[in-house]
Design brief:
The chain is an alpha+beta fold and about 170 residues long. The protein has one helix at about 1-30, and strands spanning about 30-40, 50, 65-75, 85-95, 100-110, 120-125, 135-140, 150-160, 165-174. It has an eight-stranded antiparallel barrel with strand order 1-3-4-5-6-7-8-9. The structure holds 2-acetamido-2-deoxy-beta-D-glucopyranose (5 copies).
Length: about 170
């Protein structure tokens, strides 16, 4: 009995230390940075367009089945007209009959700076009326090859008159 117990305790300790090491190395590899999407809902700069919807739909962002395509400039600081480091290109579909949730398929395509040539893929549901929305990062290319993680996003600034929003996006990758 006693002979059997010693090895199993050793194995437990070993397993615990291995999982602790894995946890620490995952923690150490975490990458975090903040981006801003420059979004215009209407006007000469429009970056967010309704494309199609169910018959009779007004193509509102709360109408089930409405399909949008977007191409927002990405900046490292929130200011309008700041240097552009990439584009947030993708589609949004209202996939909730109640109009609250959107399916988001978005590529962050970097065109200058540290991540020039690389991209990040976002895929998941956006609870669009929540103040802070979390979406999964499922993949990437270049410096982000095989990445995973999540983004937290929030409206940082909104000018209703111009339909202009600055969306803050905190990216966390493991
Ligand atoms: C978006 O960025 C491009 C350069 O990549 C620039 O020509 C264009 O004016 C920017 N759009 C807005 C609305 O700032
Ligand atoms: C879109 O839906 C929202 C929320 O239901 C509503 O407040 C707004 O007036 C609608 N816009 C249009 C153009 O119908
Ligand atoms: C369009 O974008 C430019 C450059 O970012 C900005 O200066 C201008 O005020 C914007 N126009 C409108 C109507 O929002
Ligand atoms: C970004 O990378 C491309 C090649 O992939 C290069 O042509 C371009 O000059 C780079 N842009 C900046 C601003 O570094
Ligand atoms: C992004 O991170 C900053 C700094 O930690 C924080 O103040 C901000 O609230 C975060 N924004 C979002 C949308 O989570």
């Amino acid at each position: 009995m006693a002979q059997n117990q010693i090895p199993s305790i050793l194995i437990l300790c070993l397993a615990a230390s291995i999982s602790m090491t894995l946890l620490l190395s995952v923690e150490a590899k975490k990458t975090k940075f903040t981006l801003y999407f420059q979004d215009y809902a209407f006007g000469p700069n429009t970056t967010f367009f309704p494309i199609a919807g169910l018959p009779g739909s007004k193509l509102n962002y709360t109408d089930f089945g409405t399909f949008f395509v977007t191409d927002d400039n990405i900046t490292a600081i929130p200011n309008e007209g700041a240097p552009v480091i990439g584009r947030a290109q993708g589609i949004y579909v209202v996939t909730d009959k109640g109009g609250k949730n959107l399916l988001v398929l978005l590529s962050l395509v970097f065109t200058s700076g540290t991540y020039n040539g690389s991209s990040i893929e976002i895929q998941g549901t956006s609870r669009q009326f929540d103040l802070n929305r979390e979406l999964p990062v499922v993949a990437g290319t270049g410096k982000f090859r095989l990445t995973r993680g999540y983004i937290n996003t929030d409206n940082f600034f909104y000018d209703q008159e111009r339909g202009y929003s600055v969306i803050q996006v905190n990216v966390t990758l493991v």
